[in-house]
Every structure is written in C-alpha cells, then in structure tokens.
Design goal:
- Helix 2 crosses helix 3, helix 2 crosses helix 4 and helix 3 crosses helix 4.
- The chain has a six-stranded antiparallel sheet. Strands 1-3-2 form a three-stranded antiparallel sheet.
- It is globular and about 55 Å long.
- The protein starts with a helix and ends in an 8-residue tail after the last helix.
- About 45% of the residues lie in helices and about 20% in strands.
- The protein has two domains: about 80 residues, Arc Repressor Mutant, subunit A, CATH 1.10.10; about 160 residues, Beta-Lactamase.
- The longest helix has 21 residues.
- The protein is an alpha+beta fold.
Length: about 250
Amino acid sequence: MSPEASRIRGSGAGRGVLEGAFALLEGLAGVDDAGLSDLAARAGLPKATAHRLLDQLAGLGAVERRDGRYRMGATVARLGRAWRTHRMVERAAALPLRRLAAATGGGAAAVAPCAGDMVVVAWLPGSADAVFPFPAGAVVPPGSAADIVLAASGTATQAPAGYSAAEWSRQVGRAREHGVAVQHSEGEVPMCCVVAPVRARSGAGVAALGVTLLDSRRQGPAVDAVKHAARAAGVNLARMPAARQL
C-alpha cells in the first residue's frame, strides 16, 4: 500500500479523502483539462483513488468529465465567485487589464491574497503566457513581484523561501520607493514582470496588477502603464459600496 493510500485509509480517513479531493482540484486549477494519469501524478494519489474521487467530484459538479479527460466544473467556479474580494477585484480590474494588455502587448493579470497565497483573480493572456501561463485561480509562487508590492504597501510579510531577510527588505524598500516591483527571469526564455499595488479607499494594498513581457526592453514604458492600470483599478474599487470595509 502506498503512503498516500495508507494516509487516506488511516484514522484520519475523512480528512485524507478531503485532502485528496482538494489535491485533484489543485491539479486542475492550472490547466484547461487533464487525464486521469496526469491528475493522479499531480495529486500524489494512486490512479484507483484518483478515479474514485474524480467520480465523486463529477457527481457534485465540481469537475466535468468528457472523453476521458477532466476539467474544473461549474460548482467550483460558482463557489470561487462567492469570494467577495475576488469578485470585487475582478470587476475593478476588468477594463484596466484590457487597456494594459493592449498598451504593452504582454499578459496582464490581477492577483489577490487568499489564505496566505497570492491567487490570480483575472487574467488576459499575452505572448509570455505561452511559456509561463497564469490563468485565473492559479497560485502565484511565493516571493513574486505581487508579494513584494503588497509588502511595500503595508501588508506585513516575512521573507519567503529563497530570500534572506536583508534581500527581502531591499526588494520591498525598492518597490515602496518606485511604486512597482520588477522581476526578471533569465531561463530559456527571458521574461520581465512589472507589478503595482491596487489600493483600497483606505490606502491599503488589497491586490496587485501587473504584466509579463518577453522583451525586457519594453520594461520602461510598461512601468508607467502598470502604475496607471493599478490606480484605475483602485479608483473602480473605491466606487463599490461593498469595498468600503477593505
């Protein structure tokens, strides 16, 4: 019996089943659809266990099954939209994101904190997203530019893995000074990410909005475009009566 199967069948079986189901949903969160073997591997579950849980999730409408492949279902989408901050940020950022994507040609996204993670709440794909996509619902890796600008706007955070306390402090201070965080990736396909905070009426940073570019030479013009889009999203957010408590 595998360690995962042992955990699910152990004394915490109810919790283990829920963890397995959520692991499968997490596996679906970053893709359009996936097959059973792929999802089982992503979730760290035996195929038989994954198949049984996916059948149960499909019966609840949490996933959809078509031609032997699975995708996120309507129930999960509906529950996700019940997250009030998510819904408000998505609405506030809709037009600014479209204008940002048109102005820069990059992939534009708005993200908001949820349970300690930064989660994409709205996304318009660009050329860079063919390499590194960030669809709505995806969790942004810790230490991202979004984490930096929210830390700079007053949201207290500890240095994430991969950063020393001194380096994190420098990154946050730089973002506070310039109003944006800029990160470069020098992998097989070099990319540049520029992010600015979306502020509530109180001035607190409640979300982040940014763009990912394949050509770092476009970073300069993108900084002003990102700042403008984030300010516009903040203005839209401030007009929403339900956002007054943010």
